[in-house]
Design a protein that fits this description.
Layout (H helix, E strand, L loop, with lengths): L3 E10 L9 E9 L3 E5 L6 H8 L7 E6 L2 E2 L4 H10 E4 L12 H11 L4 H14 L15 H13 L5 E5 L7 H16 L3 E6 L2
Parallel strand pairs: 3-8, 6-7, 7-8
Antiparallel strand pairs: 1-2, 1-4, 4-5
Helix pairs in contact: 3-4, 3-5, 5-6
Length: 201
């Protein structure tokens, strides 16, 4: 039996003040352990779907399920869900919150209230895995776009999500950085993480 991590059933979502719905009766299943691509032109609702997937938005009607259970929209539940469903935005500037690379990667772990020793170990591991060790002390605003993308993925992966969602991950990247990113994503998938990626390319 195929196991589904994330399911949308007849989901409708309209932005406040908008005339047309962004999602119109969407039904979709994301199978566990797979790599999935969501393809569609700009403005077709890919980002909206992702914001519904980890509970940042709540559907006007229909159901979003995680591992067969409908999402609950209380703060405690959503905090736990967002550890399991990691979302990397198209623009890394929307994601980076701290002053240095090391601080940024530790941010989510600090919010979980983990012991300092575990935070330190997991941040060091992420710095190595994403080839950011040399940049650990670097101010985030001094990084190139490709480096910022790597940091934003490390920010999410340090929480060990079961599903990694990437919104247009190769946007703004040149060929070399795109190839590096694809290599990184292959490694992430090999660890057992399910990938869901949006692209219009």
């Amino acid at each position: 039996m195929q196991e589904y991590l994330l399911e949308f059933e007849q989901v409708y979502y309209t932005y406040p003040g908008a005339q047309e719905s962004a999602l119109n009766g969407l039904t979709l299943r994301i199978p566990s352990s797979k790599k999935c691509a969501l393809i569609g032109q700009n403005g077709c609702g890919k980002t909206t779907l992702f914001l519904l997937a980890n509970g940042l938005y709540k559907p006007n009607s229909g159901v979003v399920r995680w591992r067969g259970e409908p999402l609950s929209y209380n703060r405690n539940y959503l905090g736990k869900l967002r550890q399991k469903v990691g979302l990397v935005f198209q623009d890394p500037e929307q994601q980076l919150v701290a002053s240095t690379v090391e601080e940024d990667i530790s941010y989510g772990l600090c919010n979980l209230g983990l012991p300092d020793s575990e935070i330190k170990d997991r941040v060091e591991q992420a710095l190595v895995e994403f080839e950011l060790t040399a940049l650990a002390e670097r101010p985030v605003h001094h990084l190139s776009l490709g480096q910022k993308k790597r940091v934003s993925i490390a920010d999410v992966m340090v929480l060990k999500p079961e599903l990694l969602i990437l919104d247009e991950p190769t946007a703004y990247l040149d060929i070399r950085h795109t190839r590096n990113l694809i290599t990184t994503l292959k490694k992430i998938h090999q660890t057992g993480t399910t990938l869901l990626m949006a692209t219009h390319d």
